[in-house]
Structures are given as C-alpha cells and as structure tokens.
Write a structure and sequence with these properties.
Chain B: It is found in: Cytoplasm. The complex is a heterodimer. By secondary structure, chain A is of the alpha/beta class. Chain A has 2 domains: 56 residues, no CATH class; 174 residues, Rossmann fold (3-Layer(aba) Sandwich). Chain A has a 6-stranded mixed sheet with strand order 3-4-2-5-6-7, sandwiched between helices. In chain A, strands 1-8 form a two-stranded parallel sheet. By secondary structure, chain B is α+β, with helices and mostly antiparallel strands. In chain B, 51% of the residues lie in helices and 11% in strands. The chains are: A alpha/beta, B alpha+beta. Chains A and B meet through helix 1, strand 3 and helix 8 of A and helix 5, helix 6, helix 15, helix 20 and helix 21 of B.
Chain lengths: 245, 628
C-alpha cells in the first residue's frame, strides 16, 4: 500500500498557521502521518498532465472522462485548470487530478509550478492531423525539461490518439503511432474519441493503474518511511527548505 | 439512518480487520441498503452566471448512502417547472424561451453530488434587507472548486445548515460572517496541542526562519514596511494568537527591529521607510453609461472631439462605460482607429484608404495556393491555429451560434489578415477572444480589423514569445497586493503562489473569460479610456483578489486550490462592484503616493513622475513603451 500524500490531506485547519509559517510545515508532517495511521482520509492522489498541440482535444478528453460529457463549444484553454475524479482500483480509492493545459508552446513555461510532481503525462494528438503527431517529440522533451521528474527515462507517459470517430479523415495510422511509442520505451497507446466516449474511460483507468503500480514499486526506494508513506519529493524539499524544526 | 449506520459498520470493520473483506462488504451493503434522504429542500434554484438572471429550479438534499453522506443538487424533474428570471427589484419573471432539451442540458451541467467530507467551506449570503432577493449558498470544495450558487427561494438556509452539522462541524469565519468553514476536529485538536507546546518555545527565532521574512529582510528598503504592515496585519488575525502572545511577540519584534537597524546601518544600505498607512477606501459609485447625447456634446461642429473636453469625456467613459448603441462609434476612437482630433470628413477619407490597405492584405493570404502552402510552413501553422480557434470562440453567444455562421468567416478573415499585417507575431491563442467583441460591435470586417490593430497595440506584448511582459505584470501585481493586502501577499508567498500565475488568464485576455460577453464589453471600454491610470487592469486584479482573501486563507488553499478557486470565479463576478473597488484602491494609492515605492508610482503614473496622459491615445500613454 503506497500512498502519495495528497494536497487534500493538508486541509487541516490550523489556527496559528497564518501567523507562523514554520508551524504550518511542522503540522503538515504530523498530520500527514496521523491521518494515514488512523486511516480516515487515505485517498491517493495521482496527478496527470495532458499535453499536446492546440485543438487535439485535451479539454474534451478531460471533460469526457470526468463529467462524461462532450461539447463542441469548449473554448481554447488559457492558462491551466484541472478536474478531479475518484476511481476505485483494486479496492483503493484514487483521486485522479487531471490537468488541462494550453496548446501553444509559449504559454507552457508559466505553468511549470503546476506540472511539478506529476505522476503521469498524457500526450495527446489528433489522428486526423499529422502535424499534431509530429509535435509529440517536442511535447515529451518539453515536459521532461520543465517538470524535471526524478527518473526521466522511466517516467510514465501515455499516448492518446483522439478523434478516431473521424476515421475517413485519418492521417496517422495506428501502426505509425504504435511504432513511435516503441521507440520511446514502450509507451502505452490508446485510440480514443472524446466525442463518442470511445475508449476514454479505459485509457484513463489504465493511466491510473500504471501510475499507481509505479508508486508501489517506488515505495521500496524510500526505506526511511517504514509505514510506506511517500511524500512527494518536491513537497518534501519545499518543507525542508522552510523549516528546521 | 440505516444506510449511514451500515456504512459506519463497514468502516469500523475496515479499520479493525484486514482489508480483504472490504470489497465484499462494500458491495453487499451497496446492494442491500437504499439511499436515504435526510432532508430534501425543493425550490432551491441554481444561478448559472452572475449577469444572467436565470435560475434553474431544483432540489437540494442531504443523502445518506452506503458509501457516505452526500450533498446533492438536482434540477427539478418537472419539465414544466418555470425558469425564473429575477429582476433587481426582486420581481420574478418567467422564462419561456428555453426548450425542454435546453433546460435539461443546462440543468444537468450544474447538477452535483458531493461527499460531505469534500466540503471545505461555503458562502452563505443573506439578501440585503428590503432588496427582495433570496438567501444563497455557494459550496466550496477541498480541491478549491466551487459549486454553482444555490438560491433558497422558499425557505431559509437554516434547516440545511442545521442538518449538515449532524455530520460535520461548522463555524463562521472570524473575519467574514458570510463564510462558514468546515472544522476538522482532529486537526483542530492537534493545532491546539501544538500551539500549547509553542507557549514555551522561542517564537521569535522561528518567526525569523520564515522564508518570507528572510527574503524580505534582503530588501532592506522595505524591511520596515514589512514590519509595520505585514506583521501587524498578520497579528490582527484573531484566530491566530492569544492576546498575551501577541503582546510578547510585538515586544520581541521591536527588539529585533532595533538590532536589524543597527546591523543594516553598518552595511550602509538601510533606508527607513515611513509606515504605509493607507487611507480608508472611499465609497465610489458607478455612473450611468455615456449616452449619444452626452457623447455628441463633446464634439466640435466638424465632428472631432473638443480637445479641451477630451479628458472629461474619457473620465465619463471610465465612470459609466458606454451605451450599447454608441459603441460602434466610440470604440473606434478609444482604440485609436479614429483619432480624437479627426473631423468626420478627415476620418472618412482615411477610412477609405485603410479599407484599401485591408483588402490588399486580405488578398495576400487569400491568394496563397495549396501548392504554395507545401513550402510555406510558417503560414500554414498560423492558418491552422486561426481556423481551430475561430471554430471555438464565443460559440454560445447568439452572434456566433450555429453551423455556417457568416460571422465566423468574418472573424477568420480579420485574424488571417492580421497575420499578414504582423506576420512575426502571427496568431497567438487569446487573440480571437479580443477580436470577437469587436466584430460583434462593428459588424464590419474592415472596421473590426483596424479596431483590432488598435487593441493589439495595447495588448500585443501579452502574446510575445518570451512572455516577459506577462511576467512583468505578474510581478507588478504582486507588488500591489503587498501594499493593499499584505496579509494575502504573505499567505500567497507561504503557499508558493506568489508568482501570481493563477491570474494569468485575467491578464492575458483582459478578463474576457471571467465575465459574460456584454460585461466584458463594459469592462474593456472602461480600460480603454486609459483612466484614471495606466495598468488599471492590475488594480482590478487586486480588487478581486482582495475580495477573495478570507475564502483563500480560511480554506487553507494551497497552490492548486488557489488556481481552481480563481478559475471558478469565472462568470460569478459582479463587474460594477469590482470596478468600484478597483477605483477605490486607486484613490487609496494615489493619496499615499509619496510613500509608495517609486517603481509602483512609475507604472501607475502617479505622484511626481506622473505626466498628463489625457491627450494621448491609450497606446501612446502606455508606460511600457519605455519599460521594455
């Protein structure tokens, strides 16, 4: 049982927190372990970032998965936003926090703070748009640079080819997408349609499973937490830098 | 109570025994025990957006389910249930225009079901006495998201809140009586015990370890500002400390201040800044929109605007905006398409010339053949971005609704021609947001294009590749929050949110996504007036953030929750309230100008460095021309 301590666990109401920042940091750790031991709110939080060219359907994929709705009236995403959905995996409740981002590269650098600590990066392209497929390399590289995960070679990516409902306009074959995935260390590939709700559920469930499985493996890398609690490395660093207590 | 008891049983069992049994029990309980409604309140209507006066009737319930306790709101199942519009005086009017499908769709979009454990707080607004409005509740979740505001049309909110207290502990915020916070008893108890430990601890030394403080002492110029402004305001937090602690802390701080002063003096860098006591915010009223009659009264006989009255005219636009029917004429001037001093005939002459130029540039991109495109990838890239964005710009606004809407073609043409006008900048996302209201008002491609060129003069730096200007504005915004609301600035810093990125969308497209289409028009013309100072946009940001201080701090929102909360304010902001608050903040700053840091005076163009900007077009009075 591995638990990535979520931000939602840090929802403690601490009266003197706004007075003294250092107390806040101390509480975080105390509360985190207490909460976990008593087993009340031990929801794992998995942070998933969706990246890809403008117009490939990132917002639609997120909304289809979380709200089970499709609209052709979504606006171009500006800035960043997220939606959350709880899923049950092997009797564990996992909160998927899915981040939707702007598709134009120049807006990426500002959102970095939100991408840090991601558990999985979903790369999305439009199967009817070859250019969006060609951009995948740069999206992947960009993510690895910006989010700088601890172990870039093994960081979990997933590829989604969206708009398969428009089969007649397809410009990227499934085979081509799959072979790209193979060159990137066997990234899982799913062909989906946010509009028809095709495969979206299955893809995100698989994303959650993979990320969760990885979390479990990684727990072994953290022997200093015998009760198998893993703090997100970033959060941990931030806390340490602000608190010597 | 049965399903809830069953749930508790499973939960207790789960805590005692191994996890293997859980799933069996869970599914067993789920299949046997039906949901139970503890309370079901009809006549609770959801409000879709702040400027929409439309309410969707529905039912608010608290349900005990086998998996926990849930708060649910569902639209009324009666398809004939009337949708009510309420005018400001509280009189209700029926809405007949919506089809049943449309109602269902809109209702379904805002329906929700949430675990009480995910509730962080809620705003409970009572109507002003005699206003005829209804009490309302807006639930705020732990992830920072907010549900749609619910209006209790037939009852008070009391019973709902009472029932809710059967499951969670609530208390009203000390700072804001309308804000009700969910208190997690366990963490409260923990906080208490730790604060008891701290009674004997060395508060001061730890205080100084606070990264915020440490950073601030680096900026020696503002050290005393922080100690005078930030610390007392933090201490005013009645939740935070007992009186004795407060007194002791203040005493110790004084000592520390003395020491620091000596130390810094030695380094020769310390500069004592007088305490920044901002005067109270004046009460501001919005005025009526400028009418055609009033507008014409500023004109000379040749149709140009009397230069002696220009400043006065701009102030009028700032204070009240414009009548909708005047926009077509006035926006041309505000955006610099027509010069203020231009007579009717002069402008008409130039307009013909500009129309020619437009058609020239339009034919340039229109004549690019498919074959050419194969070797013109930069062009193709821009074109494809424009096409993608035009198809999803303001499609809910009737003007752009429906397939094959001719206005989409106009919008496309304007943006593509701008790509040829400024190929280096090209098309960047957000530009279509700026262009669509212009087309809506101008209803003409050529006029829209040249107004758009004027608007881009003011905003193009937002779209530059390096994003330096956006970052600059974020920094300026942080400086302003530090002065206007040091407590919030301190909190944002402690939550690593002081890059202000959560305001990115506000700044990039000038609140286009935060307000309805018509409210955006109003807000923009106020900003285009260039009054009362440049960067008034940032004061609007400050005004909104200031109004959210208690919600952000009392909910203990972190980085992601702050972003979510700010995103969810969209369509639930009152444009007039925000404009008056921002103007009041301007007066506060203006009255304290000689105490403000020089760079702030500079970019707000107040104080000694101020130059009269009344005769400049907005683009020319833009202080960044020199900045960057």
């Amino acid at each position: 049982m591995s638990i990535l301590i979520s931000l939602f666990i840090f929802d403690i109401s601490i009266s003197s927190r706004s007075l003294l920042g250092f107390q806040f940091f101390c509480f975080q750790r105390n509360t985190a372990s207490i909460t976990t031991m008593s087993g009340t709110r031990k929801k794992a939080l998995l942070k998933v970032i969706i990246l890809g060219d403008s117009g490939v359907g990132k917002t639609s994929l997120m909304n289809q998965y979380v709200n089970r709705r499709f609209s052709n009236q979504y606006k171009a995403t500006i800035g960043a936003d997220f939606l959350t959905r709880d899923v049950n995996i092997d009797d564990r409740t996992v909160t998927l926090q899915i981040w939707d981002t702007a598709g134009q590269e120049r807006f990426q650098s500002l959102g970095v703070a939100f991408y840090r600590g991601a558990d999985c990066c979903v790369l999305a392209f439009d199967v009817t748009n070859a250019a969006s497929f060609k951009s995948l390399d740069s999206w992947r590289d960009e993510f690895l640079i910006q989010a700088s995960p601890r172990d870039p070679d093994h960081f979990p990516f997933v590829l989604l080819g969206n708009k398969v409902d428009l089969e007649s306009q397809r410009a990227v074959s499934s085979k081509r997408a799959q072979s790209w995935c193979q060159t990137k260390g066997n990234i899982p590939y799913y062909e989906v349609s946010a509009k028809e709700a095709l495969n979206v559920e299955a893809a995100f469930l698989a994303i959650a499973r993979d990320a969760l499985a990885r979390e479990s493996q990684e727990t072994n890398d953290f022997p200093e937490f015998p009760d198998q609690i893993r703090l997100n490395p970033n959060q941990q660093n931030q806390q340490n830098s602000g608190c010597n207590c | 109570m049965l399903p809830y008891l069953a749930y508790r049983y499973v939960k207790n069992k789960r805590e005692k025994n191994q996890r293997d049994m859980d799933s069996d029990l869970d599914s067993m309980v789920r299949s046997i025990v039906p949901d139970k409604a503890v309370i079901s309140i009809p006549g609770v209507a959801a409000k879709l957006g702040e400027d929409s006066k439309e309410y969707i009737p529905g039912v608010l319930s608290i349900l005990e389910k086998s998996v926990g306790v849930f708060i649910e709101w569902r639209p009324s199942e009666d398809p004939d249930a009337t949708w009510v519009m309420t005018s400001d005086d509280g009189n209700a009017e029926m809405v007949h225009s919506r089809s049943p499908e449309e109602k269902r769709d809109r209702g379904a979009r805002v329906a929700f079901s949430m675990d009480v454990n995910d509730l962080s707080s809620f705003r409970n607004d009572e109507p002003k006495r005699g206003s005829g409005g209804f009490p309302s509740i807006r639930l705020i979740c732990r992830d920072g998201s907010s549900q749609v505001p619910l209006f209790f049309r037939n009852s008070s909110t009391g019973e709902f809140i009472d029932r809710l207290q059967g499951y969670i502990t609530l208390r009203r915020s000390h700072r804001d009586a309308d804000l009700v916070i969910v208190v997690d008893q366990k963490s409260e108890a923990l906080a208490k015990s730790v604060s008891m430990l701290d009674e004997n601890g060395d508060i001061l030394s730890r205080f100084m370890q606070n990264p915020y403080m440490t950073a601030m002492t680096g900026f020696s110029k503002i050290t005393s500002f922080v100690q005078d402004q930030v610390i007392p305001s933090v201490l005013n937090d009645t939740d935070a400390v007992t009186q004795e602690e407060k007194i002791r802390l203040m005493r110790e701080l004084r000592l520390a201040e003395e020491q620091m002063r000596v130390h810094s003096d030695a380094a020769g860098e310390f500069e004592v800044v007088t305490q920044l006591d901002l005067p109270p915010r004046p009460e501001i009223y919005r005025e009526l929109p400028v009418s055609r009659e009033l507008w014409n009264s500023f004109k000379l006989s040749n149709g140009s605007i009397d230069p002696m009255k220009l400043h006065h005219l701009k102030m009028n636009v700032f204070r009240g905006g414009l009548n909708a029917e005047l926009r077509k004429e006035a926006w041309k001037c505000l955006l610099g398409y027509r010069q203020w001093h231009e007579s009717d005939s002069e402008f008409e002459k130039r307009r013909t010339e500009l129309a020619k130029q437009y058609h020239n540039m339009k034919s340039q991109w229109m004549s690019v053949t498919e074959d050419q495109e194969k070797r013109f990838s930069k062009f193709v890239k821009r074109k494809s971005l424009v096409e993608k964005d035009v198809a999803r710009t303001d499609r809910t606004v009737p003007f752009f609704q429906g397939e094959d809407n001719v206005n989409l073609i106009h919008l496309h043409n304007v943006l593509m021609t701008y790509v040829m006008y400024n190929f280096d900048l090209g098309y960047v996302q957000g530009m279509s947001d700026f262009a669509s209201p212009l087309l809506f008002v101008m209803k003409d491609e050529v006029d829209t294009f040249w107004c758009f060129v004027g608007l881009m003069e003011m905003t193009h730096k937002n779209f530059e590749k390096d994003q330096a200007f956006i970052k600059l504005q974020m920094n300026q915004l942080r400086d302003l929050v530090m002065i206007i609301n040091p407590k919030l600035a301190n909190y944002l810093e402690s939550e690593k949110s002081d890059d202000m990125y959560f305001c990115f969308r506000w700044v990039l497209v000038w609140f286009k996504r935060e307000f309805s289409f018509l409210d955006t028009c109003k807000l923009w013309e106020v900003l285009w007036s260039g009054q009362p100072c440049p960067r008034f946009l940032l004061l609007i940001c400050v005004a909104i953030l200031d109004s959210q201080t208690n919600i952000i701090i009392d909910n203990h929102f972190g980085l992601t929750e702050i972003l979510k909360h700010i995103n969810d304010l969209s369509m639930h902001l009152k444009v007039d309230e925000i404009l008056t608050a921002a103007e009041a903040i301007f007066h506060q700053l203006s009255a304290s100008q000689n105490k403000l840091p020089a760079h702030i005076c500079q970019y707000l163009n107040i104080g000694e460095s101020a130059v009269s900007s009344s005769n400049n077009s907005p683009s020319r009075s833009d202080p960044d021309r020199e900045d960057l």
